[in-house]
Amino acid sequence: MEMALVLPLLLILIFGIIDFGRMLNKQIALTEAARDAARVASFGGDPTARATRIAGDDVAVEVEGTCTGPGRDAEVTVTNDFSFVTPIGLIGGGGFDGEVTLSGTGIVPCQ
Description:
alpha+beta, three-stranded antiparallel β-sheet, 3 strands, 24% strand, rod-shaped
């Protein structure tokens, strides 16, 4: 009887931890992609190709500023809509539907 009461909560907790790890992994990938794409943009390359190669094809890349000379910065923001697999919306409540927009930003001085 006790197991029937505790098992669903335990499984939601375990899979919630796994889901949080997936989200953290995606956030790290987005930050790395933005930093590397900003470095590529600072040399005049294509930051979108670099960001999608690192973080995947489902990311949106936004480039702020162009490198026309030294003294400026190349700023790249990479965003992605992350969906949880577990029913995290039931736990969080408050209108949380289990989807989060993650973003990473990289700023590198122009070369």
